[in-house]
Amino acid sequence: MGRRGRGNAFGSFLLGSPDQGRRVLRLRVQVMLTVLLVSTNVIGALVVVGLSMLVVPGPPPNSDLLLAAAIAIPVYVGVAVVVGAVWGTAWALRALRWASEGREPDERDRRRALRVPLRLTAIQGGLWATAALLFTTLTVILQPDLWIAVALTNGISGVVVCSIAYLFSEFALRPIAARALMGHGPPLDRGSGVRRRMMLFWSLGTGVPTAGLFTVAILSFTRDDISLERLRVIILVIAGVVLTFGALITLLNARAVVAPILAVRDALALVERGDLDVEVVVYDGTELGRLQAGFNEMVTGMKERERIRDLFGRHVGQEVADAAVRREVELGGEIRTVSVLFIDIVGSTGFAVDNEPTEVVEVLNRFFAVVVDEIDRARGLVNKFMGDAVLAVFGAPVEHEDHAGAALAAARRMAERLLEEVPEIRAGIGVSTGEAVAGNVGDAKRFEYTVIGDAVNTAARLTELAKDVEGCILVTRTSVETAGGDEAAHWVHHEDVTLRGRSTTTATSVLAPQARATRSA
To answer: For the chain, how far is it from start to end, CA to CA, in angstroms?
Structure first.
């Protein structure tokens, strides 16, 4: 398990610098094949000797057979190692040419790279089948009564060697598999996967010892010279092989299956803690590799959805985005009692004419940064940016126990900060509390969350008048009376005004003298 870029580390470890890639790859594949052929054939020879001497009943070989074996075995093993190394290396290097050239593999390259262990195992199987045929033929010619034992011991040994060869080569080529599968899931061929690996483990840990037991039973029917002591030795040997190899193969099987699952489990724990930069290295060519690749695809999708959600939240407000995620979004609205804050720059047209565009944008960005920060701090929603003006709502779409107090506090704090942080401009601020329709307005294909009603219109009208009021903040008396806590103490009654388009008056309030004095200080 690792983070992004770990797959490149595998490639660098395997290939070295790009200029030396082909030579390094050829050398490592050659060394791997040599070690593979020598070690597996030594193990196979030991299995043959053990079966012949301790397990398979029969007469001792005669002098002619011993002489032929002493000549044929070393010669054949030497030739097999050379042929296998040359043949296997040539095929493996062709299959891994993309790695030595430092390019990204295509689908065909990935499939061939993942088939290298199986192809090398097939080469081993062919060599051992030839050996079994050769030595069985020599036995038929020189000592016919031993040909069954020789054929069976060579066949059983060939299964052991092929199983070990596959497991060893698959483990040795994991760095290449990780690079081949980087960003992709393993292509699952018919007959491939965990099933094939489990059958190999079974054949090595259970099938071979059981086949040896069957061999003894079959040969015992054809011979009457097997003593009780000989049977005891055979049973002890087979039991020891079953216990030893069974435990070893079970351990290897558990490690091969559990390691990819543990990697995904650890990565999931990081995702649960909010870390979406985690990535599992895909190195397994079976269904377990699909699990690893599937986890990476899942995290990629989560990161994309989180990015979209963040972008969505920046456009409509995080609370609106969260509400949309929690429930199905539909057109329509509901009547809510809310507080609305409206802020507009004084003399923005003249400021834009008298200054360079870059300076205007820089000042506007500082202005909006203060406004948005204070609205978010008071748990409000920035509903609209309208040129150099901002409309904010408190109490929708998420309930706010003291929406009026939050709106008034936000107005005070942003006016104070704008005076200090953006002295180049002045802005009028209006706050109103009342009923409004809050919901999604537009078409089913394209809509926006907004608030419509008298409270919004009142806040906009107060903003126009606030530009001529000391402190540049004008709020409705209803907002002050609705506010909870100590917020009302910061405001005093101003006058009743008739807003544009209205026939009745609206009671307003402004900052108390002590509050204005604090700002000025």
So the answer is: 58
